[in-house]
Amino acid sequence: MIKTVLISGGTSGIGLAAAKILAREGVRPILFGRNEERGKKAAESVPGSVYVPGDTTSADDCEKAVKAAAELGKLQGLVLSAGIYEEKLLENTTDEEIAHFFDVNVFGAMKLARAAIPFMRGTKGSIVAVSSDAGLQGNVQCSLYGATKGALISFIRSLALELAVEDIRANVVCPGDVDTPLLEKQIHDYGGSRKEMGEWYPLMRIAKPEEVGEVIAFLLSEKASFITGAAIPVDGGLTDW
Predict the structure, then answer these.
(1) How many CB atoms lie under 10 A from the CB of residue 137?
(2) Residue 207: beta bridge partners?
(3) What is the model's pLDDT at position 208?
(4) What local confidence, expressed as pLDDT, does residue 190 receive?
(5) What are the helix (H) ranges across 73-139?
(6) What pLDDT sits at residue 102?
(7) Number of H helices, E strands in the chain
(8) Any idea what DSSP says for residue 178?
(9) What gap in Å lies between CA 55 and CA 168, rounded to an integer?
(10) Please, which residues bridge with residue 52 across strands?
(11) Which candidate, 147, 151, 145, 149, places its Cα nearest to that of 132?
């Protein structure tokens, strides 16, 4: 049976890059996302992949996505890549914005992981979440975003201890700026350029989505069989300044 990996946020950016890498390695990626037009287009670009519509903030949608993935093959991997970003001073945020950020960046990941775990038992599976450098250190005007990404790291590191007895691993990657559609929106909304962003990094550039995708694929693989509970910066040295 072909093993499958369910990827939330798999229709663009880092999630889609990881899907393409996994497909080349003989894994069937299941792309889970809200935008059906983008999802179908993404599935066409990834050989052997399947798009499943839904929203991680809905427990019902999470359960449907997991069942759909398990029906197509042994569910051995889960990538929690869905997320939102915004820059705003805390005093300017609303209660609704705070709730929405946690719904998407934290609670959605929890709901999808909760739904997937029963299907991953006995598979020696692996879970990888996509956090951020903002989850490891403070960023200006990102107290809310950083709080959700820090919570995601703490959640996954604790989950890794819970799942160790099941022989299921759980890790987190923490990218800095990555050249994705989300970054394009960030530049449009807040200004700046890729070149200016790159100057903040010791490697003097921002990441390509494939560079983060390769680390995700590694953590899902048997090559990382003794790595669990780790939060791995994929940030060109940014958090070492």
Answers:
(1) 15
(2) 178
(3) 96
(4) 84
(5) 95-102, 108-120
(6) 98
(7) 9, 7
(8) B
(9) 24
(10) 32
(11) 149
Q: Which of 51, 85, 145, 201 is catalytic?
A: 145
Residue pair 35/52 in contact by the 8 Å Cβ criterion: no
pLDDT tens by residue, 62-88: 999 999 999 999 999 999 999 999 999
Owner of token pair 């037009």: 37
Instruction: Tell the residue number behind the tokens 């007895």, with chain if given.
Output: 165
Active site residue 51: no
Q: Which two tokens mark 92?
A: 């300017």
Confidence (pTM): 0.96
182, 105, 107: which is closest to 148 by C-alpha?
A: 105
Task: Let me know: does 42 contact 207? Beta carbons within 8 Å.
Answer: no
The architecture that CATH gives domain 3-240 is 3-Layer(aba) Sandwich (3.40)
- Residue ranges per domain, the chain? 3-240
Residue 193 · residue 187 · CB < 8 Å: yes
Which residue ranges of the chain lie beneath pLDDT 50? none
Q: How many residues does the chain have?
A: 241
Local structure of residue 144 (DSSP, 8 states):
H
d(CA 70, CA 61): 14
